[in-house]
Specification:
six-stranded mixed sheet, 13 helices, DNA-binding, elongated, alpha/beta, homodimer, 342 residues, 16% strand, six-stranded parallel sheet
DNA sequence: GAAGGCAAAGCAACCGGTTGCTTTATGGAA
DNA sequence: TTCCATAAAGCAACCGGTTGCTTTGCCTTC
């Protein structure tokens, strides 16, 4: 009890047996030239419980191969935005992990890391989930140490596994939907796509919008527009001046703002203006009225990633690395309609 | 396992010195009865670099007294709701920790735990942040191990530190604001307050609403209303039938829904209906139009908690435990106005 | 009665570092 | 030449577990 937590030796002393005996009993490592009398076993277990003994994972990690710890990398950048899909992803991952036969402990690293530093925790981990991305050094370490991993919504190195939503397909569906309704003046509202940095969804959505518009011989109307910009200015520019009848918005917060601004400007949605956005199904559930949205399937993303990871952990070396492209779904609700022809 | 990762001994052998010498040189632990010739020092450092030696953090944290790890408890319940203030809290905590002179690693526990189980990680932690609450067993362990901790937005045991927003004062300000505008038919919209379970903000806001109304001789109008319920039904009942002119909403998502429903029902906000809600400043920032809201100060909450914790860690035993009641602020924007008198 | 076999538990090395203390080498003073 | 202080580096215990192998004791069996 010197430094707080009781150690294996403390339990051993209290129970009057040796360290190794305690270790073997608590880890149920019988056979292999070892056995105990039931009486001793009970006493040890009881003593451990009484002292509130909990193995020190750090020490355990030093010698053992498995710690049943799953570590989620990238929490700091991925969870820092409000209403982020990663929240749903993480929740679904923990849910799957909890219901797994062996239960796993899940931790999320929230620290900031320099881009040239390792994000590896000090303890040994059995599996890793990478939210969008981690530093190169971290990735190298993960691969070198042979830790099973799955990248969620991000690029992964050769031979790795990933689960990524198909933003290109989703964008195509959105445009298709608007075209079928009869729209031709379709604008895109989203942040500027920085091709080098940033997430692939930015260029994916934006570029697909451009190419789809071009494919159908339509003019593309793009004005970089972040959720913090003035939605009213944006609508004045696009809807009132350029005659835009439909907007594809990068995120649901941006869409909500557009909706509010439309109310202020007396632009009826969906009669005069259709809005479709990319959205997490949960985020959308709590919002009324129902936005027409492209479901990123974050719930499924988390689930699939967790199952993929579990599979890799449980059958090491026998699972083919997979790159799963998760189809997005168009959910038509109350913010899209045929264009106003009055 | 080995995977070629060179160990301290490998470096020592290659450089022709002992383990301890390498350790001391690489950690720059001179003095205290130890010194090296510059020649040897250079050779060791060079050898380490050549072998691409990286210390095994697991082994390191076994012996070191400090692990520089901060653990955040309660991530699973606190971060599972979208748009949660805890997200802001966590982000601000990591920010403070990162800018601390010694840098700390912050992890968030996302596992689910039975209420009679310990949530303690198996590795040593230097400090703990508890989001709202943790299991009793966990709390006991933290106290017993003498780990510095701060409870954020929740109750803490005798002698512990906590940072909590003053929901009672905030509610009083909100009601006061509405009264000054001339409202008298003020409704409260929020989840049912389960007095035993649940968070103190539920009864705090609800009860203060009741007592304030009573204090001013006004009728209280309460209909349990969650964000998933129909906002339109709620408005029909309160505004259209009972003549309510102002609503205090528990959360910003609920307020947003009320706003949308008001549009649908052609109820003008704020002309015919004032809405004020409790909200995270960040969540509100991304929303237009500007809601009048009670600022919970989650940013400050995280900052204060982190600083308090750092203080406790750096001056162990010399810091008085504090219970900080953070004042909420009323931010008047575009959803409150004098009642409609047409 | 001695040898053999097996159940039950302990010894001690090891994982990869850190650190208090000891040993060895070196040089200057007496 | 002898002694001693000090610089330079090594020894070995320790952190808290795991595990191969050995020891102890008891019961059979010949």
């Amino acid at each position: 009890m010197k430094s707080g937590m009781p150690s294996l030796s403390d339990v051993a002393d209290a129970a009057g047996v040796s360290k190794s005996t305690v270790s073997r009993i608590l880890n149920n490592r019988l056979g292999n030239g070892f056995s105990v009398r039931d009486e001793v076993r009970r006493k040890v277990i009881e003593t451990a419980k009484k002292l509130n003994y909990r193995p020190n994972l750090i020490a355990k990690s030093l010698t053992m191969q498995s710690t049943r710890m799953i570590h989620i990398f990238g929490g700091n950048h991925a969870l820092s935005d409000l209403g982020n899909i990663y929240q749903t992803v993480v929740n679904n991952i923990t849910q799957i992990m909890d219901s797994a036969s062996k239960d796993y402990d899940v931790t999320v690293d929230m620290s900031r890391h320099a881009s040239d530093a390792s994000e590896m925790p000090a303890w040994k981990i059995d599996g890793a989930i990478i939210l969008a991305k981690c530093t190169d050094i971290t990735m190298d370490e993960i691969v070198q140490l042979g830790i099973p991993y799955v990248v969620v919504n991000g690029a992964c190195p050769e031979g790795g596994s990933s689960v990524v939503p198909d933003d290109i397909g989703g964008t195509q569906m959105a445009i298709q939907h608007l075209l079928e309704l009869g729209h031709s003046k379709i604008a895109y509202s989203g942040p500027l796509p920085p091709y080098l940095a940033g997430h692939s969804s930015l260029p994916d959505r934006h570029d697909t919008y451009l190419s789809e518009m071009q494919k159908h011989g339509l003019e593309s109307i793009f004005w970089p527009h972040d959720i913090l910009d003035s939605a009213e200015d944006y609508l004045k520019e696009t809807v009132l001046e350029k005659g835009v009848t439909a907007i594809v918005a990068y995120g649901h917060m941006g869409a909500l703002n557009l909706l509010q601004a439309a109310h202020s400007l007396n632009i009826a949605v969906p009669e005069q203006l259709s809005i479709v956005c990319y959205c997490d199904e949960y985020a959308n559930k709590v919002m009324s009225p129902g936005l027409t949205f492209i479901d990123l399937g974050s719930q499924k993303m988390g689930k699939v990633a967790a199952e993929l990871l579990l599979d890799q952990i449980q059958r090491p070396g026998r699972v083919e690395p997979q790159r799963i492209l998760l189809q997005e779904k168009l959910v038509v609700r109350n913010t899209t309609a045929p264009p106003y022809s009055g």
